[in-house]
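Subject: Myosin light chain kinase, smooth muscle

B.,
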Amino acid sequence: MNVTILDRPEPPAGRPCVSDVRATSLTLSWYGPTYDGGSTVQSYLVEQRRLDKGEEQWQPVTSTCRSTSYLLQGLEAPARYCFRVRARNEHGLSEPGLESDPVDMAESQDPKQDDDISDDDEKVTEPYYQQVTINTKQKVSELFDIHEKLGTGRFGQVFRLVDKESGKGHAGKFIKALIAKDKESIRHEIELMNSLHHPKLVQCQAAFEDKSNIIMVMDLISGGELFERIIAEDFELTERECIKYMRQIVEGVCFVHEQGIVHLDLKPENIMCVNKTGTSIKLIDFGLARRLENNKSLKVMFGTPEFVAPEVINYEPISYSTDMWSVGVICYILVSGLSPFMGDNDNETLANVTSVSWDFDDEAFDEISEDGKDFITQLLKKNSRVRPGSQQCQAHPWLQKDTDNMAAKKLSKERMKKYLAKRKWQKTGNAVRAIGRLNSLLGVGNRKVSLSGLKISPDAAESPAPMDRHPEQQQQEQQQPLTEKQRCEPFFSQTMQDVLSAVGAPAKFACKIEGYPDPEVIWYRNGQPIKESQLYQIDYDEEGNCVLVISATSLCEGGKYTCKAFNVLGEASCSAQLQVN
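Prediction pasted inline below.
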């Protein structure tokens, strides 16, 4: 029997990443703990050690950092440093996380660089563009050193790569591709990205294929999600900054549309900051993107409920305006910290979208200009034909404002913090609710819904997977005949155990599911299906680890909990008891 109690958090996951190395400063970024101990992480302790001096003791740098990045200044050069991070909640300080890779502070660097920490747009180096073809003659490990895992998802895993020749860092997206259909889908994504060479769009730099994976070598974007960036302590949120970000988002979307492509998954997780100190962003993840063809109607049934346009839900033809709806939702949240459509569950959210029920009644909009509200109003129209296109948006008076001379009145970040916290409770990960998800919610088709999923973005800030097996090892394990791997009914390699919990404390059930095709999962309490809510959070990652977290137990939550896994070959289940005292 396991006893679930409130405790100090687990260590920050993965290895801290060093970026923006200047003469006497650098930026350190990391991921939060995989489990926060049942209470919110309040701050992080950053520690450093001089390797060139043979120091064994770790020296504290700061103990009050509230975000997952920190600008270290006043470092000595020449010198070699190493860093690590601990997480703190109200119950104590975690064990230290993994050490960063050693970093050398070179005396030859220009000290003037430290006078210009922020990266204005005109100072951003133009990316290197190239047409990518899948390399089937070499292994990715022949050209890149493979380092720690940055995250995991239903598609596969992301590792940090370092080019052996140039030393430049990349993100390696190892995607499971066991059947021809999977490989064709990835080739389609690469083909689209070959058309999307623009500074505001993430770039694919190379691709490799082996028997079980296609590996996409992507830009390594270290700044994290935009919405996480703006709630950082060192960031001042104003309408002026919102305009600067929306200009970049619309600029990127405009280029995508000019190439005849729709993104179809614009949302906060797919807007990444180039680094932790500047204001430049990039749009990422073109896995759902489609090319629009003249005289051909295209309908889709995928997207993220909170950001999906009404025409997608209604299974009507999509257009470039479908992306512009998502831009409007993102802008609404950015300026206010409130969501126009988020309900208590996905069904409620989708109903809010189809009814187009939103307003500016909250006091948050008292601080926003009429031009800003008009920009949002024009985009959040149910009739897609009357929404402005991306070029029209670029010419809108709000985006044309002289931001250099605008009043810099601070906007509250507390609403955004609450919004992000609520979103973390509601979702099982940064999941793309694809066709089965929306079909099931809307009653379209007969495919059963999976109440789980996890999608990785380079920040992986919410619940990054701990580093485990090296991808080369996994590839060796996957060399078994495909027919054997494709034909396996679900079974539990790790089963749940009974849990004893105090009233008001969180409780967690965990198990591990094997099987191929990937099993779908439904959780039950006393025989009744469990729906995701603020009380129940469900996590199910690519490796089959499945977790149900009950955020605050009461006597009513006691009973028998069952995890049922099923695919086309069969089903399996395991159960355990929750006792609440």
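Residues 108-126, 428-469, 475-485 have pLDDT under 50 and may be disordered.

T.
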